[in-house]
């Protein structure tokens, strides 16, 4: 949503003589930058469409004698032949739209040529306005054209495309400008008086998803309008000569402009340059206001929940982490043989630690704000479609990035043999992006971070948590990421963490043996509990160890309110799951963590919270999805699940 302004390049290749064309192009870019926007001059160089030209590329187009005038119809040919050319209004609109730039500044649009009712010489700019959602800021229809017939032609285009091009004059009058003249005998349907109003109009069109553009006509500055009559007389003479010489189509405009410049002794060129500078100034101001409005709209939309929520949904939770498309390959043998094909089954599901936890919480009656990033690709379409029950409005979709994918190979008994992941996009969940949600972070009941996000983002969230006394749950995800908060003092701002035993040992770089699991885990938790309120150590088939402050013979899972007196731990055995039942091991830990969070936020006692987590983990193991679609509050309520006999947890003091 940063302000960017697209600029055409036929003014460089065909609109002005050298060196005026080059100096004007650079001056217009300077005007855009001076107003706080980024210029993106569009051109075709050796068969490639460039959105944004370097100084050398501008020089190349300005000096190139063989440059073509490239409209929509010319793009395929020019690209296929690796030619160069300046893009017209229609071609520039196409490129800008594909690059995600909503504002385009030009001198004037094409339209119906004079005597066009006989020649049928009508510019492609008009049809492009009817099918490409771009705001074109210009001085109206080019003066060499038939303004009246152009405006009469526009409604026909609207009907033809079953769309509408919104036309508005910029300023205090709704009179449609005549390029070099501030007034014509025609009136615009609408009027916008300042950049804010113009930006609001564009934002409305974009939000409605209309496939047509908007034309904002900006009158030429008064000091340059005086030459309008002289220029109009020169245009008539030039048009007459062009007709006599049978010069039509895309050759007509360059001929007429050059002839008018000669007849007016350069006054038309000076007025043209002033007009373009003015359009660039106004267009850039509109782009800046539009950027601000779109950012504000996006942030407002993130605070509005959609759909029916349960009575527990008022808890304010933020989850920051990854989204993955998972491919799970399960072998049919206990031992997999590397270097050869093994019999098995392969299925696709949607995961990512952050996504899994947000999914789990959403199914258990909450509505977490989920902050993440995906590519703008088919994987992103698929996963976001699957996550319709979640609030994914804060997930950034990034062009030229791949949605994270993860492939895990498990053996017959469900143990992971190998995992491969393309997770680079998680580095785009940056401190800068997450800081947009500081208001939500600073008022959250609980913030959950997964270890996929960059260290700088973790540090930032922990600093906000420390400042506002917010509870943060850190989910390490894997060995390499377990240590991220511990690279600084950020870990001291954590309230909860849920490492597995391997993560736990890695954090403290101490060895252990299977026989000493509980003793070692309890011992190692002691220094971390100086600052972290509660540790939930998952032990795989051996269950869960919960470590924290002692309250009435149990561990206090609820948000801390007073200084702890003594520390203890509770060991809960895992629930029985047969090898045949196990379909997926990638979401059990996330399901356990998400259900634990839900229990804590609902104010349940420790036993109930942990048992909710264990039931959710069992559902996950037996499902092809990391978070079982059958997961509901009733399905993990220890009281309502009558078939489960609960073992008493083992109590241990932490000395």
TrEMBL record:
Q: Which residues form the Carbohydrate kinase PfkB domain?
A: 316-629
Q: In Gene Ontology terms, what is one molecular function of this protein? A: metal ion binding
Q: Which GO terms describe its biological process?
A: nucleoside phosphate metabolic process
Does the record carry DNA repair as a key word? no
Q: What is this protein called?
A: Carbohydrate kinase PfkB domain-containing protein
Matching entries from PANTHER family are given as: CARBOHYDRATE KINASE PFKB DOMAIN-CONTAINING PROTEIN, ZGC:136858
Stored CDD domains: YeiC_kinase_like
Source organism (scientific name): Monopterus albus
UniProt cross-references to Pfam families, sorted A to Z: Indigoidine_A, PfkB
Q: Which Gene3D superfamilies match?
A: 3.40.1190.20, Indigoidine synthase domain
Keyword Lipoprotein in record: no
Gene Ontology terms: cellular component: cytoplasm
**Entry keyword set:** Glycosidase, Hydrolase, Kinase, Lyase, Manganese, Metal-binding, Transferase
According to the entry, what is the taxonomic lineage of the organism? Eukaryota, Metazoa, Chordata, Craniata, Vertebrata
């Amino acid at each position: 949503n940063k302000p960017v302004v697209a600029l055409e390049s036929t003014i460089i290749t065909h609109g002005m003589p050298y060196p005026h064309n080059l100096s004007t192009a650079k001056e217009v870019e300077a005007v855009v930058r001076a107003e706080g926007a980024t210029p993106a001059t569009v051109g075709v160089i050796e068969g490639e469409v460039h959105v944004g030209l370097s100084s050398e590329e501008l020089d190349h187009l300005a000096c190139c004698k063989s440059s073509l005038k490239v409209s929509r119809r010319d793009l395929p040919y020019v690209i296929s032949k690796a030619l160069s050319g300046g893009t017209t209004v229609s071609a520039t609109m196409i490129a800008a739209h594909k690059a995600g730039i909503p504002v385009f500044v030009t001198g004037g649009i094409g339209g119906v040529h004079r005597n066009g009712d006989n020649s049928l010489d009508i510019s492609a700019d008009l049809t492009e306005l009817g099918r490409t959602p771009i705001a074109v800021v210009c001085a109206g229809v080019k003066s060499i054209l038939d303004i009246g017939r152009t405006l009469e032609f526009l409604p026909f285009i609207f009907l033809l495309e079953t769309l509408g091009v919104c036309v508005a004059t910029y300023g205090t009058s709704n009179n449609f400008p005549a390029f070099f003249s501030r007034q014509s005998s025609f009136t615009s349907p609408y009027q916008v008086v300042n950049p804010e109003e113009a930006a609001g109009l564009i934002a409305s069109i974009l939000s409605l998803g209309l496939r047509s553009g908007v034309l904002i006509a900006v009158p030429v500055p008064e000091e340059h309008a005086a030459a309008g009559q002289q220029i109009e007389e020169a245009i008539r003479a030039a048009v007459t000569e062009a007709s006599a010489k049978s010069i039509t189509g895309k050759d007509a405009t360059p001929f007429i402009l050059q002839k008018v410049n000669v007849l007016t002794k350069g006054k038309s060129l000076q007025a043209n340059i002033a007009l373009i500078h003015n359009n660039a100034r106004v267009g850039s101001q509109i782009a800046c206001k539009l950027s601000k409005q779109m950012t504000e709209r996006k942030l407002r939309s993130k605070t509005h929940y959609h759909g029916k929520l349960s009575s527990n949904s008022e808890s304010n939770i933020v989850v920051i982490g990854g989204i993955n498309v998972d491919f799970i390959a399960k072998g049919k043998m206990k031992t997999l043989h590397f270097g050869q094909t093994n019999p098995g089954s392969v299925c696709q599901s949607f995961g990512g630690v952050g996504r899994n936890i947000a999914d789990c919480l959403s199914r258990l009656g909450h509505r977490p704000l989920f902050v993440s990033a995906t590519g703008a690709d088919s994987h992103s379409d698929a996963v976001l479609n699957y996550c319709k029950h979640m609030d994914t409005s804060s997930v950034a979709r990034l062009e030229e990035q791949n949605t994270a994918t993860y492939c895990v190979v498990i053996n017959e008994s469900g143990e992971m043999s190998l995992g491969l992941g393309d997770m680079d996009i998680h580095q785009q969940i940056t401190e800068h992006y997450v800081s947009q949600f500081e208001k939500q972070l600073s008022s959250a009941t609980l913030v959950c971070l997964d270890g996929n996000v960059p260290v700088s983002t973790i540090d930032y969230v922990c600093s906000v948590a420390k400042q506002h006394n917010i509870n943060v749950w850190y989910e390490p995800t894997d060995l390499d990421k377990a240590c991220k908060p511990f690279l600084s003092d950020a870990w001291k701002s954590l309230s909860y963490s849920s490492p597995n035993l391997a993560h736990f040992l890695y954090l403290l770089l101490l060895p252990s043996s299977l026989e000493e699991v509980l003793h070692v885990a309890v011992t190692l938790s002691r220094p971390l509990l100086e600052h972290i309120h509660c540790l939930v150590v998952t032990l795989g088939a051996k269950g869960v160890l919960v470590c924290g402050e002692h309250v009435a013979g149990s561990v206090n899972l609820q948000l801390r309110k007073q200084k702890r007196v003594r520390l203890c731990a509770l060991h809960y055995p895992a629930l029985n799951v047969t090898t045949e039942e196990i379909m997926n091991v990638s979401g059990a830990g996330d399901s356990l963590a998400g259900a634990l969070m839900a229990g804590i936020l609902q104010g349940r006692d420790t036993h109930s919270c942990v048992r909710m987590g264990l039931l959710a983990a069992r559902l996950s193991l037996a499902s092809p999805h990391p978070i079982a679609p059958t997961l509901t509050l009733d399905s993990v309520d220890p009281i309502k699940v009558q078939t489960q006999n609960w073992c008493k947890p083992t109590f241990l003091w932490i000395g």
